[in-house]
């Protein structure tokens, strides 16, 4: 009977491909990109509560450039011309929080890496990218940190979706 229970559990778990691309380890981010994907940290001057990294299956560039007229920066998406067909851009936002602002929305819980998160209902966040789908995950990393991973996609293949899910499974959350 025990063997049958183990077999049922083993067959019912989804196994996604583990990322085999470059490793990224910087500040609050520690992950391995899927093979052939690119990662980049935001060049925006960090605010005290939020830091951003990007992951995509197409080339990335700096998201911010200096603007002398504004005496600051102009920031935009880190890809040129929007998403290409089959493309996914993940914007990973690390946010510190306190009390109620750390609570996850009332959605079904799921495991993301070795943390608890939720898949948020579709909402804004991918404007100007020629996207066909949007997935946003909110993950409790610690009692004072909730991360948001926004994935904008343009007709991704099953293999691309599986690579993205493997990335989510393989995140090594860095907690101060």
Mean pLDDT: 83
Total of DSSP H or I helical runs spanning 4+ residues: 2
* Quaternary state of the chains: single chain
What shape does the CA trace take? Answer: globular
Radius of gyration: 17 Å
Q: Widest sheet: strand order?
A: 3-4-7-11-10-9-8
What is the number of strand segments? 11
* Low-pLDDT segments, ≥5 res: 1-13
Strand content: 35-45%
Secondary structure class reads mainly beta
**For the record, what CATH class applies?**
Mainly Beta
The succession of helices and strands, N to C, reads: HEEEEEEEEEEEH
The assigned CATH architecture is: Sandwich
Our count of domains comes out at 1
CATH topology: Jelly Rolls
Helix content: 10-25%
Largest sheet features: 7 strands, antiparallel
Distance between the termini: 43 Å
Describe this structure in words.
- This protein is mainly β and 176 residues long.
- It has one domain (26-170): Jelly Rolls.
- Helix content is 14%, strand content 37%.
- The protein is built from 2 helices and 11 strands, in the order H-E-E-E-E-E-E-E-E-E-E-E-H.
- It has helices spanning 2-12, 158-170; strands at residues 23-26, 29-32, 38-41, 50-56, 64-67, 72-75, 88-96, 109-112, 115-120, 133-142, 145-153.
- A 7-stranded antiparallel β-sheet has the order 3-4-7-11-10-9-8, with helices on one face. A two-stranded antiparallel ribbon has the order 1-2.
- It starts with a helix and ends in a 6-residue tail after the last helix.
- Mean pLDDT is 83; it is low at 1-13.
